[in-house]
Amino acid sequence: MSDEHPIELPEGLVIQVGDGTGNERYRTCQECGSDCVPEHAGSDDMGARIAFVCPEHGLHSVVDPFEHLR
């Protein structure tokens, strides 16, 4: 995305990178320190989730980006 062609967002929609605390450790594998790859993880009964998966060590953490709306 470039500043030249910004995406127009509906009024009231906020896009946030991270959990808002500045703490990005949920993305970092505790075993090797690598940045975990975000993958979709969810189902009809549990809603949307983002799983952070280390390429070497597997699932690291699961984040619910809409928890504050439930």
UniProtKB/TrEMBL annotation:
Q: Which domain of life is it from?
A: Bacteria
Specify the protein name.
Answer: Uncharacterized protein
